[in-house]
Structures are given as structure tokens and as C-alpha cells.
UniProtKB/TrEMBL annotation:
The keyword Zinc does not apply. GO terms for biological process: DNA damage response; fatty acid metabolic process; programmed cell death. Keywords: Dioxygenase, Iron, Metal-binding, Mitochondrion, Necrosis, Oxidoreductase, Transit peptide. This is Alpha-ketoglutarate-dependent dioxygenase alkB homolog 7, mitochondrial. Residues 209-233 are annotated as: Disordered. Residues 75-203 form the Alpha-ketoglutarate-dependent dioxygenase AlkB-like domain.
Length: 233
């Protein structure tokens, strides 16, 4: 985003990375939809990107699958990480997840090309527990959350490169989330131009089921959908 817009946002008295339809929803979701800007140092961001790039480059971007929740993406599920990256993921775990929560393994890595976007969806409760935590790399983006029953209630999260977002509880269950396409990528009146974005997403396991494949979604209308990922695995 433009440097001047960024400076202006930093001066706002409310958390400048989260905006919403009203003070009630903002205060209700204060601990349920959290953005930690600058969670990664530039060096840590570089470590993750460099480690992910060769795996991602082997895959092709996918478009317009008939019921896909994502457009213009490639992805991988990664279990083996370098020591440096493991240390970063452990920091995510410590900040975002409680001691009683088990994380889904492997970690989901999603690469959106500049025109790529994620449609509104609620992660399936079959495959994902109470908490989703994502690191954003390379490009800023805007994540929009909309209440599934009260569409007038919404939040927007500004996700800058190096930031961590956490969705838990009501933000994860009662609100759909999406990553806006470039043409719609505004945080309030601030344009947030989209480039290629990589996200590294950790999820807790559903409390009462065993490990299973990550990335399965329920669209905002509640209809069971295809995996977040393509049908390819
Ligand atoms: O790329 C992201 O950070 C969001 C991914 C997403 O929507 C999801 O994992 O359900």
C-alpha cells in the first residue's frame, strides 16, 4: 500500500489493522480476530519465502474450478521445515494456540498470484478446530469477515507482509472470511494493491476427531464444498 496511507493508518487510535461495521462487533471480536503486524522480521520472512519457493514453483496456478473457493492459486502441505522456520512456527503456536490445542499437521501453504483471491467461506468444522492462524508473505492484502446470519456485521483485517492473523471462536465459526481480489482490495478508503501473496496457515484440530486432511471449507451459504485446495489431492 502507499506509504502515506500506511502512515495515516498508524496514527488511528483504534487497532489500525482491524476495522469493522461498528464498535459492538469490534469489541466483541477484539480477541477473536487479531492482527499482529510485524510478527516476522524481514529476515524471517525471507527465510520462509526462500524455503517455500522451490516447492511452490513446481506447481501450476489453478483457475476457475467450478466450485473452488479460491481463484488463481497453488498450494502445498508442508511437514518438514528447516530449523529456522520451525522456530517461527513454534512462535506462532505459542502466540495463537492454547496449551490444550493440537495443531493440524502438515502446515498449509497457499500461494495466490496477483489476480488470485479467496471467496467467502467458513472452514469446515470437520477438518479445522477453533483456531486458524496465518502468516502473510510478499504482498499486503485485505481479509474480510462477514457474519453468516447478519451480513451487516463485518470486519476487515489489513494483512501486511510479515503479519500474523488469528481467527478463533466466533470469528472463525460465525463469520465467513475471504481475501479480496485486487480490484476490491481496499482497507476503508485506502487502496491495498495486491501482488503475489503467500500465506502459511496453521489450524487447530477439531476437538473430537482425529487428524485428517486440511483445507476443506464450507462456503458462506453453508453448503458443503470442495476442499479449499483444488481436487488434485
Ligand atoms: O490465505 C489465507 O491467509 C487465508 C486462507 C483461508 O481462507 C483458509 O485457510 O481458510
Amino acid at each position: 500500500m502507499a506509504g502515506s496511507g500506511r502512515r495515516a493508518l498508524r496514527t488511528l487510535p483504534v487497532p489500525a489493522w482491524v476495522r469493522g461495521s461498528g464498535s459492538t462487533v469490534l469489541s466483541r471480536l477484539r480477541d477473536a480476530a487479531v492482527v499482529r503486524p510485524g510478527f516476522l522480521t524481514a529476515a524471517e520472512e525471507e527465510t520462509l519465502s526462500r524455503e517455500l519457493e522451490p516447492e511452490l514453483r513446481r506447481r501450476r496456478y489453478e483457475y476457475d474450478h467450478w466450485d473452488a473457493a479460491i481463484h488463481g492459486f497453488r498450494e502445498t502441505e508442508k511437514s518438514r521445515w528447516s530449523e529456522a522456520s520451525r522456530a517461527i512456527l513454534q512462535r506462532v503456536q505459542a502466540v495463537a494456540f492454547g496449551p490444550g490445542q493440537t495443531l493440524l499437521s502438515p502446515v498449509h501453504v497457499l500461494d495466490l498470484e496477483p489476480r488470485g483471491f479467496i471467496k467467502p467461506h467458513v472452514d469446515s468444522i470437520k477438518f479445522c478446530g477453533d483456531t486458524i492462524a496465518g502468516l502473510s508473505l510478499l504482498s499486503p492484502s485485505v481479509m474480510r469477515l462477514v457474519h453468516t446470519q447478519e451480513p451487516g456485521e463485518w470486519l476487515e483485517l489489513l494483512l501486511e507482509p510479515g503479519s500474523l492473523y488469528i481467527l478463533r471462536g466466533s470469528a472463525r465459526y460465525d463469520f465467513s472470511h475471504e481475501i479480496l481480489r485486487d480490484e476490491e482490495s481496499f482497507f476503508g478508503e485506502h487502496r491495498v494493491p495486491r501482488g503475489r501473496r503467500i500465506s502459511v496457515i496453521c489450524r487447530s484440530l477439531p476437538e473430537d476427531t482425529g487428524p485428517t486432511k486440511p483445507g476443506h471449507l464450507l462456503p458462506a451459504d453453508g453448503t458443503p464444498s470442495a476442499p479449499l485446495a483444488s481436487q488434485t489431492h
